[in-house]
Write a structure and sequence with these properties.
This protein has one domain. Helix content is 70%, strand content 2%. The protein is built from ten helices and two strands. The protein has a two-stranded antiparallel ribbon with strand order 1-2. The protein is flat and about 75 Å long.
Length: 230
Amino acid sequence: MTDFRDLSLQGLWKNNPALVQLLGLCPLLAVTSTFINGLGLGLATMLVLIGSNVTVSLVRNIVRNEIRIPVFVLIIASFVTIVQLLMNAYTYELYLALGIFIPLIVTNCAIIGRAEAFASKNKPLASAYDGAMMGLGFTAVLVILGGLREVLGAGTLLAGADRLFGDAAKNWTVVLFETDSPFLLAILPPGAFLAMGLLIALKNMIDAKLAARETAPKEKAERARVTAET
């Protein structure tokens, strides 16, 4: 029986594709100059993950083991093409902003990794949920990183929201502070490396505190047992 709660924890925190597996870092660091860019690429990646996981799960008993990887890549490339055409048709400005990083979703190791490690061994529903959680975890990191860099670099948030949500989102931009000289370190790629390092450090610190909290009662009980025996 599939443990959907465990799949959620794995995708969002314990085995997050970006923070733990450190996969897909090239597009993650390159396009997260704004919140909307990160959200757009994250949603595209999540759709590809869900679609490819379900398809791989459906054909897992048909495809021969010797050719499974090329077949998985073809499936992923097909879904990337679908997402790329949809973005070209409905979110053209965002499509131009993300550029080459949309077709490069094909080479994202997180997607082929989930197809091989999970979807090829599980049923479609569980595979779809795993793809959704892994995609959501990846999207969350993209959004946090993009929002942090946009706020520090330009003093705004949700700039260009109309590129993803249409004309109704033109007034969604939040101006936190105005500056004549943007903080270039946050906007340029070196800022992405620094911000990513801070996010990974923060997660590791939280994990260490959680682990210490879990082991403290066991250590206390063990000390009490040893004291009682002596």
